[in-house]
Amino acid sequence: MTNAEFNLDLNIAKIPDFPKPGIVFYDISPILEAPDLLKQTIDTLCAKAKAFEPDLIGGIDARGFLFATPIAYNLNCGSVMIRKSNKLPGEVVTEHYDLEYGSAELSIQKDRNLSGKRVLLIDDLIATGGSLSAAESLVNKAGGSVCGALCLIELTGLKGREKLDCPVDALQSYLY
User: What are the beta bridge partners of residue 118?
Assistant: First the structure.
């Protein structure tokens, strides 16, 4: 199957009114359950990630973790966790951000060696861009350079990519 034929839409469950009324949750669980589709998704992400020439893959808590490590393994680079508040031991740098349905914080450990490294951010979805923008800020504070952001899904109508100072790519897009 070529990239032009690679369409995840039929394998993304759309759950209305979750986590609150008016929000549609794009659930990637069906992709994770299907071995061939999961492999094809990871292979496609790896092909796209390679073009960014990263030193590290920054997986964003929590669904970004599902893809960050296999991508890092395939590209022979490292992986770093960007976690929700109070999930990492030791000293951390924290960044607050707004979601389309609330607010949250992300953290990165101060002792991660990001200085001068190109970091590719990975998450399942970009909507308003809040979590990716916070992750980008954390990587910058840690001395790294964000070379791009890669997601399975982009909600283009929410213009999240406009909050980022890096190229953004996604496998599947929806207006909202």
Answer: 145
Q: Are 131 and 106 in contact (CB under 8 A)?
A: yes
Give me the helix-helix angle, 35-50 and 65-75, nearest 10°: 60
Instruction: Tell me if the pTM is above 0.90.
Output: yes
Handedness of CA 72, 117, 52, 59 (dihedral sign): positive
Helix, strand, coil shares of the chain, percent, nearest 5, are 30, 35, 30
Which tens digit of pLDDT belongs to each residue from 54-84?
999 999 999 999 999 999 999 999 999 999 9
As annotated, the active-site residues are: 63, 100
What is the per-residue burial (b if ≥16 Cβ within 10 Å, else e) of 75-95? Answer: bebbbbbbbeeeebeeebbbb
Beta-strand runs (E) in the chain? 13-16, 24-27, 56-60, 78-84, 92-99, 102-109, 118-126, 145-155, 168-174
3.40.50.12280, 3.40.50.2020, 1.10.10.410, 3.30.70.100: CATH of 3-174 = 3.40.50.2020
Domain boundaries defined on the chain: 3-174
Cα–Cα distance between 99 and 168 in angstroms, integer?
A: 18
Question: What whole-number distance in Å separates Cα of residue 169 and Cα of residue 176?
Answer: 16
